[in-house]
């Protein structure tokens, strides 16, 4: 499942925002955990915020629930709320974390500039 090329090994979480932001009153504790794991899964998929297979086809929700160790019901409710709040979009290619670049490290953000210097 994880791709080697383009894979993100870690994501950035803004500490204050994560502890005191809107996610804390919009999602239950279980749903917050699912959100964090969806970010991790998007990083492992290596498609810049997409959760999908190598051919940009969506993973079944049952598969995603299994991968992130949650119930299908909890995943579905989390996805519903995240779509409602604009955190996630879903289409024929899979799930997309709408503000993916906000979860990337400074290292990744600066990578294009470093490559120009080479």
CATH class: Mainly Alpha
Biggest beta-sheet profile? 3 strands, antiparallel
Into which percent range does the helicity of residues fall?
Answer: 40-55%
Overall geometry comes to globular
What share of residues are in beta strands? 5-15%
CATH architecture: Orthogonal Bundle
Give me the count of strands: 3
Strand numbers in spatial order across the main sheet: 1-3-2
Mean pLDDT: 87
Tell me briefly what this model is.
The protein has 118 residues and is mainly alpha-helical. The protein has a single domain (15-117), classed as Winged helix-like DNA-binding domain superfamily/Winged helix DNA-binding domain (Arc Repressor Mutant, subunit A), CATH 1.10.10. The chain contains six helices and three strands.
If you had to describe this structure to a student in words, what would you say it looks like?
- By secondary structure, the chain is mainly alpha-helical.
- The protein has one domain (15-117): Orthogonal Bundle (Arc Repressor Mutant, subunit A).
- Helix content is 50%, strand content 8%.
- The chain has 6 helices and 3 strands; from the N terminus they run αααβααββα.
- It has helices spanning 15-20, 23-26, 29-45, 61-67, 72-84, 106-117, and strands spanning 50-51, 88-91, 94-97.
- A 3-stranded antiparallel sheet has the order 1-3-2.
- Strand 2 (88-91) and strand 3 form a beta hairpin.
- Helix 3 (29-45) packs across helix 5 (72-84).
- The longest helix has 17 residues, at 29-45.
- The protein is globular and about 50 Å long.
- The mean pLDDT is 87.
